[in-house]
């Protein structure tokens, strides 16, 4: 009888362990095609200066097509009045970068990165949004321990929900972070014409560029780079190696902003932080 009880208890323990193990999902990839509106916020926080500045609030329309290896993003943000469109089409080896009415068209060569939860991520548990939407949270660690990212996706179909990238600095007792909130996600592309050559690119400047097409890196880079593309910006962005703008740089930007305000004096010193940041950005002080 004791032996039977021991076996029963053992089986129950194994069963419970299997249930616990099964509750931890595997890292997943999003659908092959989807589109969404991404609400983005990038901020800088300093304990030393008692400072918290929202550097960027933006809206990005995203079109992702891993079947044909292409992405498109249309950007609007609080720090740049110019609308920006980027189309990377590795299937056709062509890329378009449109800044206002200016277009750069490039021969594109590189690899396409699927939009997945990275395999080296750690599972951080789940939560339920609303009444029944189960969302899994994943933590992504880097060799540089000052950096950390959190990725939230739905348990069903691995639909992106939120992503946050964070970096701290001991030197300045400060930190920067970028948060992307995915809304209106559709598991299809409404029209493949969004990847067609834009009419403004008829007489575009032509060049050649070697880079990987990584949508996650593109989104994070924009949040951490204050959403400030420039005409020369296209040739050097979107590589995972260039994903992060250091917190020290962001902090120094703010110091420069305060210095310029003091130099100008008068009414300029009374500008709101957001207005002052816009003036600095438009004058290429950053």
UniProtKB/TrEMBL annotation:
GO biological process, one term: cell-matrix adhesion
Keywords recorded for this protein, A-Z: Signal
Coiled-coil segments on the chain, per record: none
Keyword Cytoplasm: no
Cellular component aspect of the GO annotation: extracellular region; lysosome
Keyword Aminoacyl-tRNA synthetase: no
Signal peptide: 1-22
GO molecular function: calcium ion binding
Protein name as catalogued: Mammalian ependymin-related protein 1
The organism of origin for this protein: Trichoplax adhaerens
